[in-house]
Amino acid sequence: MTLEQSAPAGSILVVGGGISGLTTALEAAEVGYDVYIVEKTASLGGRVAQLNQYFPKLCPPTCGLEINYKRIRDNARIKVLTLAEVESVTGTPGAYSVQVKVNPRYVNENCTCCGECSAACATEIDNAFDFGMSKTKGAYLPHGMAFPQRYVIAPEIIGTDDAAKAAEACKYGAVDLAMQPKTLNLMVGSVVWATGWQPYDAAKIDNLGFGRYPDIITNMMLERMASKNGPTEGKIVRPSDGKAPETVAFVQCAGSRDENHLPYCSYICCMASLKHATYLRSQYPDAEVYIYYIDLRAPGYRYEKFYKMLKDDPKVFFIKGKVAEVAEEDGKILVTAENAVSGEKSSRAVDMAVLATGMEPSLAGAKPRADLVFTEDGFIVNDYTRGGQFACGCANKPADVVSSNQNATGMALKAIQTLVKR
Amino acid sequence: MQKKYGVYICTGCGIGDMLNVEKLEAVAAEKRFDCKNHPCLCGEEGLNLIKADIAEGTNALAIAACSRRVNFDIFKFDGCVVDRVNLREGVVWSHKREEFPGPVTDDEKADEYFLDRIQQMADDYIRMGMARIEKIAIPEPYQLENFSKKILVIGGGVTGMGAALDAAAAGYEVTIVEKEDTLGGYAAKMRRQMPVQMPFESLIPPVASDQIKAVEASSKIDVKTGTVVARIAGQPGDFTVTFKKPGEKIEFDVPLAVPEAQRYDENGKALDVDQIREIYVKINEGRADVLQFDPNGSKYGAVILAAGWRPAELDAEAFAHLGVGNADVITNHQFEMMAKEGKVVRPSDGRPAKNVVFVQSPGKDGDDTDFDYCGSVTSMVALKQAKYVREDYADGKAYVIYQHMRTPGLQENFYKSMQQDPGVFMTKGEVTAVESAAEGLVVTAANTLLGEEIQIKADLVVLAAGMVPATKDDPVVNLAYRQGPGFREIKSFDGYADSNFICFPYETQRTGVYAAGAIRRSQTIEESMEDATGAALKAIQCVESSNRGVAVHPRSGDMTFPDFFFQRCTQCKRCTEECPFGALDDDERGTPKPNPTRCRRCGTCMGACPERIIGFADYSIDSVGSMVKSVWVPSDMDFDEPPMRILGFVCENDAYPALDMAAMNRISYHADVRIIPVRCLGSVNVIWIKDALSQGMDGVFMMGCKHGDDYQCHFIKGSELMDVRSSKMGDTLTSLGLEDERIAQFEIAIDEYDKAPELINKFVARIEEMGPNPFKGF
């Protein structure tokens, strides 16, 4: 056995357990380095866990997540901390001290995932995983593909009877309501930020009517609806009446390429809407899809082919023009746009409008205490000369999953270089 | 190893409520295995129970509890073989007492012949687990005799140099081989390049020149210019590479694969393996065989393929409307070369080219696609080149006509900064004609933002031709593999050396060879350099994994590898042909030579082998076959109406998790089904199916990943190969007097957890209709 032929010097900390973070962590660990993954939520998986399918293959993201979870299971070098946030990073490349706050799950490792706690719990809370379109019990499993597969007690029910009932229902002593937040101090050689993105808040875009009319939804909400484990068990329906939509409009660049919102292009929204058109067209063979765009950005031969496939669909219509307004009129959603080529303003009444909202870096708001350089918009700038800390995936720039994973693989090497230099 | 067996039954999570644990223990007693149960086996007390036995010498354990996908870390015991008998998700969570009642009254409980289907299922799973731990062994890693950690980078452009510098910075020795006489590739030939970092606003000098200096200064990198790879033989960790001058013909030029067209006779009938081998030998006359290693070859551990691209040439006929053929209508590549030399001028007369129109899309018949092999790079190149016009002439004007301005992500910043330039005009439009006029050219465009039809006078027209990957013309990597020298799927990727996988962009069918840069997809310099770093990591990971004797993705860390019992090999070549990773090279007799570090451990060879001579330490014809044989098949001697026995081989990557998820959602399927997880459907050997049917089982199904162009199989072709194998079983079934319909294969995606039980139930219903297997009871 030559397992220890390349003994690792120091560890790598990966902040964020989405697809980019998982990639960096696994790729580094499989070279032979020790890695911590610090994930803010109760489960690994990140944004992609919420997606129904990936473009352009139309395959389920859980397929890749499952393989990655298997790789974690088989690799003792990876330590996963969930419900954990990095509070500060001090030190220099090769020798960082990282303070991590671990929030209580109120469920310990005795949890067998039997579900009795959830059954005993009466309170229902908004399910953020479904963007509030569904409820979960106060004791819940984040989702079917949660990793670790372990229940969580929502902080909302702590101190209520419900929490006590959940604790009582557990035969395995897994519910621990006295659990307190704790702070860990980790010594690592390098830090990779894979903090990802969040959907831009569509309510901030006044003219697009989100939040005022129920049948105006966001692309990520549509993604949840299309998912079998989502609020409608995979059926895409009008939120107002639960009916099948016959006409759907997609509003591209909802917030992106807009100085008042996100000045950059969010990279994925064109492809995402094309993909959404396939969801709709396969569920409703007669439905019509209207896509309003400025430029259709389908970069690379695979995406171009996908776009071509949609162009060949006689019920998918592409309209080059920026949408000026989305509102409701007589129970329909009215989309008004200016055709960029003809200059004509036109309105179309549809059953449902989907706003292709862009991606905002998760660190656009509050920043961790760490020596990082941010763009005005909150992306982390990589400084390879200084090294030590790096950003990958959408913490660094808007990107699709393929490019994020290419970049996340590369950042594993940058982190390793830091350890080797020391 | 000397084994001491133990069976551990967890009665928690509803297992003890639904099943008769005493009966389960009685099953363990059939083989006189020690058996213990605990209400929470995964808890401290339960684990201590197991650990105490291990301390006493127990080393082969069947843990009858939850799915192997949970509690993976706590039921792992050093020096022990373990099977996870899935009673929770596989039995109690996926079956309901309302559908399959158990004994309730005292009479029923006392009735030996009471048919409790769920209990029988659990009993069988324990038998199968016990059978498996009897047959499996602890794997020992494969160790190469010679080992090199050195990395070979093919291509000395920004991608290749980037990869080399990154690998060197992590401490690895690297060789760059570049076919031209200087390093730098295309990126060094540019006047200026797109920005590589924030704020992505202005052009920068080519980064290639700094890279060249860094490469030259590095003690870890050696450079071979004016050199190409003649062949790469061997396997990761131990590649033997022969270099040569471009165009040279040498003995160690790589053997070629038999072209697709030559694999059929004049009537279109597929030739057999021996006939194809004859052609193979003929076309490779004068070239050393793949198994003959160049004694003067250089040793490498892994390869990075960064051979880049060539500028596309535009066909004058296809693009006649764009004036191709006119001296002043040139491609973006020709423009770049001119701009590097000096000011931009008209090639026809050398006069300044002050009005330049950049055409992004051929714009014919309302088609809005760009030229072939463009990606979004050419949009940005046009913006960059528009800037050159403005740099060269204060009164210069650049017009960019596009269908879609493709500057995704943060590249939008550069687009925006260009919009500030009053001499750069950009419009969506369809270029309908480029024609000669009295002075220069006239470009006509329709449907533009400036009007329905516009005409622009131009000194020069630049067409946005694409970037053709080097692998379109030539395998480049020249692997001396029996399956052929190139990447295997290249056609479905338009000639790019790309990966089929979204989640795993570096995975291809050739272990230890990682592509990066414009050879995998048209990419900017920034993207290519990032890609290079990723490929360097994968190359390093591959040599380190090979050194440890473990598999790389997707079975990373797996220490098993296929073992061949060569005495019984009949040289049928099926394993060599079917291996998705080209891990086997057979000799002139057809006996396979394994290359374990090329292998990804999917078991396709094991599934393919008609002699059943291939197996892994913990996964073999015998281990699975014994599980099949351990299933109790009741006949009418046992019950008036005996229950059916349906066997399912289920892919552990996607279908098995889907069934687990169905169980979590309490979706049930028929209790007469027995599931065996397999590494990949490609590893399913038809002998298991035959055995199952000859012992009286009523039906066998396979459940695996989707195949086709967008296949989801992690091992490329597993489910497809199995489909072919089972379709060929018709004769065997007929000889057994059985209907074809007793075998079925289903494709399932991991998220179709509602569909998986449905498919199973439909299959069971179909078998029920057919009636029992007549072999039952014999």
TrEMBL record, chain A:
Q: Which UniProt keywords apply?
A: 4Fe-4S, Iron, Iron-sulfur, Metal-binding, Oxidoreductase
The record ties this protein, via PROSITE patterns, to:
4FE4S_FER_2
- State the Gene3D superfamilies in the record: NAD(P)-binding Rossmann-like Domain
Please give the Gene Ontology molecular function terms for this protein.
4 iron, 4 sulfur cluster binding; metal ion binding; oxidoreductase activity
Task: Name all 4Fe-4S ferredoxin-type domain ranges.
Answer: 102-131
One protein family per Pfam: NAD_binding_8
Q: Would the keyword Zinc turn up in this protein's UniProt record?
A: no
Q: Which domain of life is it from?
A: Bacteria
Q: Which PANTHER family match?
A: COB--COM HETERODISULFIDE REDUCTASE IRON-SULFUR SUBUNIT A (PTHR43498:SF1), FERREDOXIN:COB-COM HETERODISULFIDE REDUCTASE SUBUNIT A (PTHR43498)
Name by which UniProt lists this protein:
Putative adenylylsulfate reductase-associated electron transfer protein QmoA
The species is Desulfobotulus alkaliphilus
Organism classification:
Bacteria, Pseudomonadati, Thermodesulfobacteriota, Desulfobacteria, Desulfobacterales
From TrEMBL, chain B:
Organism equals Desulfobotulus alkaliphilus
Names of required cofactors: FAD
A GO molecular-function descriptor: oxidoreductase activity
Q: Which domain of life is it from?
A: Bacteria
Protein's UniProt keywords contain 4Fe-4S: yes
Tell me the classification of the organism that encodes this protein: Bacteria, Pseudomonadati, Thermodesulfobacteriota, Desulfobacteria, Desulfobacterales
Q: For the 4Fe-4S ferredoxin-type domain, which residue ranges apply? A: 560-589, 590-619
Entry protein name: Putative adenylylsulfate reductase-associated electron transfer protein QmoB
Q: Which family does it belong to?
A: Belongs to the HdrA family.
Which keywords annotate this record? 4Fe-4S, FAD, Flavoprotein, Iron, Iron-sulfur, Metal-binding, Oxidoreductase
